[in-house]
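hey so u asked for the seq, here:
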Amino acid sequence: MKGKREIINRIIPDAEQNLPLLRKHLNKIKIYEKDKGKWYIKSHDAYGKEKLVYDVVKDKKRPEEIVRQLFLFELTDNYGYPIGNIKIEEKVNFGRERKRADIVVYQDDGLTPWIIVEVKAPHEKLNIAQLKSYLNAEGSPIGVAINGREMTILYRPYPKQFDDNLPDIPTYEEYLEVKDSENPAIEVADIILNRKWTLDELEKKSKERKKSLREIIELLEELVLANSGVDSFNEIFKIIYAKLFDEWEAKNRKNKELKFRKYKNPKTTYKVISGLFEGAKKEWKGIFEKTEKIKLTPEHLSVCVAEMQEVKLFGSDLRIIDEAFEYLLPKVAKAKKGQYFTPRVIIDAVVKMLNPRRREYIIDPACGSAGFLVHAMQYVWDKYDMKDKDIKTAYARKYLWGIDFDEKATKISRAIMLIAGDGRSHIYKENSLEFTRWSEKLKVDLREEDLVRDDKFKELNFDILMTNPPFAGDIKEGWLKALYDIVPDSKRKPGSKIDRHILFIERALDMIKPGGRMAIILPQGVFNNANDRYIREFIMRKARILAVIGLHGNSFKPHTGTKTSLLLLRKWREDELDEGGNPKIKDYPIFFAVSKIPFKDNSGNYIFVKDENGNLVFDEKGNPIYQTDLFDIADAFIKWGKKRLKEGDEAFDFLDDAEVE
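ran it, C-alpha cells below
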C-alpha cells in the first residue's frame, strides 16, 4: 500500500510547501483506500462522514477537501472547539436559493452559526464576496476564507458591515466569555486585540507561523500598498524597522511586553507604530532621514500591522528573511542594473570553500542583500562556537564590510545584518568602482581598522572578498576607466565602452591584501570568449587561480538565464612575483568542476530534496534541503586542496584548521 503522504502529494503536489498555514496537521489526516483506486478520508467534524478525495482511475482529485480537513484539525486542536459544534456542508439560505457552506462552527446551542469557513484549493483565489454573503445570510459574526497558503478573517460587528483587520479567530474559551453578550462580535474582537502580547508569546506564535514574511508582503501589496499611493518598498521597510525596534526594546520592558500590534482604534495603531519607528531611527542612524514619517493612512497601517504582528524578526530563520527581501527588490530595477539576488546555495558553497577565520576581514563590494556577509558570519560563529551575544556582535561589527551603490540594496543589507547579528556598522551606500569619490565616513572607518594600503584608497587590505558584481551596464566615463589597468587601449578611446563587471575584477583584486583570497561570480564568456583573453591574462598576472566552477544555467532564474561561473583566486604575495611584477610560478594545477544538478527549475523556483514518499527532507535546523551538487563540489575542492597542501603547496594553507587561531 502506498504511503498516505504520497497520496496526499498526488492530490496536492509538494503539500508541505504549498500548505504553509496548515502543514503541521498533515500527519493527522487518515487517508485510506476503500475501493481499488479510490481514496477516502473520514471527516473530522460532528458527522464524521467518508469523503472521496482521489479517484485514480478517473484521475479526479479534491485538493480543497484536504485543505478543509486540515483546517478542521486547526479548529479543534489549536482553537479548542468541540468537534460536536463543527459541521461541514451545511445549507445556507439565500431567499429561494440554497448553498452549502464548507464549514460552520456553531455556538453551544447547536443552531446559531459562530464561524463560517469558505475553503479553496491551494492554487485557487479566496472568494471573499461569497464568504460575506454567507455571513449575511446566516447572521454569523466571524468568517474565514482559506486555501492553505493564505487566510483572510472577517468579522461582522453589525449587519452588512465587515472588518478584515482581525489578526486571529477567537478560541473556544474566548467564545465562552462573550457568548451571552449583546454583540459578541465586538466583544470578542476586543478580547483578541487585547490579548497578552509579549516576546514569549511572539516566540510561540512564530513557531506556528501561518504565513512566511514573503507571503505577507505579497498580500499587503495586493490588498493595501498597491492602491495606497506610496512607495511600498519604503513603507514596508519602515514597518519592518519599527517591528525590529519593538523586539529589541521588549527585552528590557516589564514582562517583555510588545507594543507592535493592531489596536482597536487605527489612530492608536498609527501613533504607537510611528513612535516605534522614531525609536528605530534614533537607535540605528543613517538608514532613514530624520524627517521621514510613515506615509500610510492609519487604516492601511492597521492592516499591515495585523498581518505582520506574529512574525518574529530577530533571530528568525534567515532563509525566510532572504526570500522576502529577494521579492522586495524591484525586479525592473534589478534587471536594468544587472543586480541579481545570489542564491544562498551558491553562497554557502563559497563560504565553505574559502573557510574564513575569526580575525579575517571580509568584504563584498557589491553586497546587495548581504548574503555573503551574513553566511560568512554564521559560518564563523559556528566554527568557533560563538554563543555569547556580545562576542557574536563584536565579530560582526568589526570584520564584516559591505558596499553597494543602490540605496534599497543597502537598506536590505543593514536590515538582514541587524536581524542576523547586528553587523550593520560597516554597510555603506557607495560605488565601489568610484573609490576616489568615497565618503569621509568610509575612508575614516577603513583607516581605523588599518585596511588601507595607499593614499588613494585603491589598494585595500582585506583578507577575503566574496562578490557577485552587476553584469549589466557599460562604463563610458573616461576618467573612471583611466583608474583601471585592466582596460585595454582599444577601450580607452572616446565613446568606447567597457562592461561594468570587468572593472569589478580589478577592483576586487585591489581590495584584498597580497595572499588574500576571493570568490567572484562572472559571466561564462569571460572564461572562453577570444575577445576577453586580456581579462584572463590580467587575472593570472595578479592572482593564482584556485578553482573554476561552472554554475547551472537555472541558478539566477527567473531574473536571468545568463550562464555563469564561480572563480576562486588567491592574490600573489610579493615574494611570489619577480622584479617585473609577474608571477614566478608559471604552471600549477587548477580545480575545475561543473554543477549539473539544478537547485532551481526553469521558472526559477527552488527544488528541494524529498524522501521516497515525496516528503521534504529537512536539515538539523529544520530547513528543507536544496537539491544540488554544489556542496559535493565544495567538499571535493576542499579534499583536493588539502591534498595539495599536504604535498607542500602553501596556496591552500587556509584549508588547514590547525592553523586557525
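The CA atoms of residues 406 and 429 lie 7 Å apart. The chain has three domains: 1-195, 199-316, 335-602.
lmk if thats what u needed
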